[in-house]
Write a structure and sequence with these properties.
The protein is α/β, with parallel strands linked by helices. The chain is built from 18 helices and 13 strands. It is 41% helix and 11% strand. The two termini are 39 Å apart. This is 1-aminocyclopropane-1-carboxylate synthase.
């Protein structure tokens, strides 16, 4: 009898039956764990806390306040309904001129007004997800590759390659220099790809980085721009966190640097942007491709038919982003709140001896739990992750899903929850680490009875067999994708 899977392989396309969506990974499995048992301060205080979602929920009060004060910006209010028909009827793929103008102005403001953006180069996409894919469709044929420094955003596997057929070649970075991208690492990845007969079409970077929460400095950006010019390949800069910078050094985007690099071929430079992070609006699906290459703008615009921003959203945002006072206040308040949250959280971790990579941007930090690993391998990392999700009940994302080259790093999102939830999360971590420390100090006879040996460091001591026997145990292999159809799933609402 033929299996359903093999039958589907005949009936459906290769894309529909391959794994290129990347969802069968712990990164997405963690969401599933949260989905099964979501934490709520009063209704489910022992549930899983979602710390795997890079969402900025710290400034909704400011946006709601603006919406209340500007009812005319919405077509679903008494004040705005007179424009309902004009907004609801057919729109072409260029987008409203006022929307593109407002986005260009916002992008410039986010970069301190030091650079300007031409509204005619702004192409719409369905979030940065859609925008990244548009760029790939414009620049790469199936089998072509983009170099991407590690650790990188796990969904790039899907966004860059699932439908386009392009592939990612990792540029390995490590903690010896705080995961900075170097010319040597770029050259090594490029050379390896060539030896493997892979056609490299470009380099894609995220600045600020997801998951590191760090910004690239000017010199590194210049190195990258020079590298792509030397090789005559493209540079795609995903700048989705450009305004989500809350500490020094301040942000430098590629737009500034291309002006400073002599003989830079601007046709090779493309920016991907979105309002999902900087404005905290991932549900609005506002993605942007900004390319200096006329052919990419022209083709990308036609492709954007597949993922336009709705005209209702364009209208609202055109008005909001054109309001200078609101935007300035929002950006500075957002940075302040993010900084405070980041500092509280990382200080709480430091108190129990957990260190994180020093960061200044993003909605997450990169936590080092190497000393809690039973063994310094990715199996050891996965074992620790299962304890954290099953016992400590925190959904943090393991470094292996970001293709990190060293085991023991975890990404922790900190801006998608209430302050009280942060306190609960910290309390859980404190108690977990405390328990480990206590067990590390018990007499040798008792120690020998434990499942996992302690070699002087803090070690895990959970009983894996007990977990396997208990209902509700999750191993990476058992878990379903969080995107399996589940109408009530919060995971269907949010990505990241
Ligand atoms: C680096 C990066 N690029 C793209 C995306 C996708 O963003 P959007 O929600 O705008 O599609 C994310 C979301 O987390 C991200 O972190």
């Amino acid at each position: 009898m033929r299996s359903l899977a093999s039958e589907n392989r005949q009936l459906l396309s290769k894309i529909a039956t391959n794994d290129g969506h990347g969802e069968n990974t712990p990164y997405f499995d963690g969401w599933k764990a949260y989905d099964r048992d979501p934490f709520h301060l009063t209704k489910n205080p022992s549930g899983v806390i979602q710390m795997g979602l890079a969402e900025n929920q710290l400034c909704f009060d400011l946006i709601e306040d603006w919406i209340r004060k500007n009812p005319i910006a919405s077509i679903c209010t008494a004040e705005g309904v007179k424009d309902f028909k004009d907004v609801a009827i057919f729109q072409d793929y260029h987008g409203f001129p006022e929307f593109r103008k407002a986005i260009a102005k916002f992008m410039s403001k986010v970069r301190g007004g030091r650079v300007t953006f031409d509204p005619d180069r702004i192409v719409m996409g369905g979030g940065a997800t859609g925008a990244n894919e548009i760029v790939m469709f414009c620049l790469a044929d199936p089998g072509d590759a983009f170099l991407v420094p590690t650790p990188y955003y796990p969904a790039f596997v899907r966004d860059l390659g699932w439908r386009t057929g392009a592939q990612i070649v990792p540029v390995h970075c490590d903690s010896s220099n705080n995961f900075q991208v170097t010319k040597q690492a770029l050259e090594a990845a490029y050379e390896k790809a060539q030896n493997d007969n892979i056609n490299v079409k470009g380099l894609l970077i995220t600045n600020p980085s997801n998951p590191l929460g760090t910004t690239l400095d000017r010199q590194t950006l210049k190195t990258l721009v020079n590298f792509v010019n030397d090789k005559n390949i493209h540079l795609v800069c995903d700048e989705i966190y450009a305004a989500t910078v809350f500490d020094y050094p301040s942000y430098v985007g590629v737009t500034e640097v291309v002006e400073e690099v002599e003989n830079c071929n601007k046709d090779l430079i493309h920016i991907v942007y979105s309002l999902s992070k900087d404005m905290g609006l991932p549900g609005f699906r506002v993605g942007i491709v900004y390319s200096y290459n006329d052919a990419v703008v022209s083709c990308g615009r036609k492709m954007s038919s597949f993922g336009l921003v709705s005209s209702q959203t364009q209208r609202l945002l055109a008005s909001m982003l054109d309001d200078d006072v609101f935007v300035s206040n929002f950006l500075s308040e957002s940075s302040k709140r993010l900084k405070k949250r980041y500092e509280n959280f990382t200080k709480g971790l430091e108190e129990v001896g957990i260190t994180c990579l020093k960061s200044n941007a993003g909605l997450f930090f990169w936590m080092n739990l190497q000393r809690l690993l039973k063994e310094q391998t990715f199996e050891g990392e996965m074992a620790l992750w299962l304890v954290i999700i099953n016992e400590v009940k925190l959904n943090v994302s393991p470094g292996s899903s970001f293709q990190c080259s060293e085991p023991g790093w975890f990404r922790v999102c900190f801006a998608n929850m209430e302050e009280e939830t942060v306190n609960v999360a910290l309390e859980r971590i404190r108690s977990f680490v405390g328990k480990e420390a206590k067990q590390a100090a018990v007499p040798p006879v008792a120690k020998a009875k434990r499942n996992w040996r302690n070699n002087g460091n803090l070690r895990l001591s959970f009983n894996s067999r007990r977990h396997e026997q208990e209902g509700g145990f999750m191993s990476a292999a058992h878990m379903l994708s969080p995107h399996s159809p589940m109408p009530q799933s919060p995971l269907l609402r949010a990505r990241t």
